[in-house]
């Protein structure tokens, strides 16, 4: 799929702010957890661009192939911590919000493994990746992971 247009050129001021928020939120919790959340939400949303980008980023940050491959079956796979499972459950509940009220059952494990502040940070991350998924799928975006990393570094330096 080819992009319908360049969203960064179409709305540069807002996209710069969106990228800034994205980078800041992504740095608010441990990197391995953030990448798992980004990948899982992107899998649910069918966002090839974000799956490609975040699996590459996860590998660069030391994530194992096993944990990346098993992410869609995280409930059955023994390689995730209880904290990661709580985050993945919360990610699925919020990403699939229209399918029912799964957040009610996901909240207890979330509270057991995350402080109130961390819960807000995680929820913001889930919102950010769901937003990126919608931008990428909606506008047919495909970004090379190296180009995305360079863009993030430029925003962080600004």
Q: Please, could you describe this protein's structure?
A:
The relative contact order is 0.18. It is globular, with a radius of gyration of 15 Å. The protein is mostly helical and 158 residues long. It has helices at residues 7-10, 12-26, 31-45, 48-60, 65-69, 82-95, 103-113, 116-139, 145-157. The protein has a single domain, classed as AhpD-like (Up-down Bundle). The protein contains nine helices and no strands.
The whole-angstrom Rg is 15 Å
Number of structural domains: 1
Helix content: over 70%
Structural class assignment: mainly alpha
CATH superfamily: AhpD-like
Query: Which architecture would the CATH scheme give at its second level?
Result: Up-down Bundle
CATH topology: AhpD-like
Percent of residues in beta strands: under 5%
Mean pLDDT: 92
Low-pLDDT stretches: none
Inertia-based shape: globular
Question: Number of DSSP strands?
Answer: 0
Largest sheet data: none
CATH level 1 name: Mainly Alpha
String of helices and strands: HHHHHHHHH
How many angstroms separate the termini? 31 Å
Count of DSSP H/I helices:
9
Protein name: Alkylhydroperoxidase AhpD family core domain-containing protein
GO molecular function: peroxiredoxin activity
Keywords: Oxidoreductase, Peroxidase
Domain Carboxymuconolactone decarboxylase-like: 12-93
Topology of this protein?
Layout lengths: L6 H4 L1 H15 L4 H15 L2 H13 L4 H5 L12 H14 L7 H11 L2 H24 L5 H13 L1
What is this entry, summarized?
The protein is mainly alpha-helical and 158 residues long. It has helices at residues 7-10, 12-26, 31-45, 48-60, 65-69, 82-95, 103-113, 116-139, 145-157.
């Amino acid at each position: 799929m080819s992009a319908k247009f360049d969203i960064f050129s179409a709305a540069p001021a807002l996209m710069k702010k969106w990228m800034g928020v994205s980078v800041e939120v992504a740095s608010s919790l441990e990197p391995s957890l953030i990448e798992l959340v980004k990948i899982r939400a992107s899998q649910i949303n069918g966002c090839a661009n974000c799956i490609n980008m975040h699996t590459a980023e996860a590998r660069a940050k030391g994530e194992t192939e096993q944990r990346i491959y098993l992410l869609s079956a995280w409930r059955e796979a023994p390689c995730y911590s209880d904290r990661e499972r709580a985050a993945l459950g919360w990610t699925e509940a919020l990403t699939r919000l229209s399918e029912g009220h799964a957040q009610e059952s996901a909240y207890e494990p979330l509270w057991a493994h995350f402080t109130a502040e961390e819960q807000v940070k995680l929820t913001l991350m889930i919102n950010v990746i769901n937003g990126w998924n919608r931008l990428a799928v909606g506008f047919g975006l495909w970004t090379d992971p190296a180009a995305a990393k360079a863009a993030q570094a430029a925003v962080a330096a600004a």
